[in-house]
User: What shape does this take?
Amino acid sequence: MESKFSGMTVNERLYVGGLINDFDNALEQKNVEGIKAVLKKVALNEDSIFEMLISLGLDA
Assistant: This one.
């Protein structure tokens, strides 16, 4: 079964999921667990989340 987020960028997923502010707030606070939680809600897998955290300069 495909996710409703299939084929979308992370930003698109966050927008459609209504989670942009949650993500931005977690990022501003450098809250890695909060970022992970938001990204899981938009169907990102663990590998993608890890890569995202690294690209943001955060410890995964």
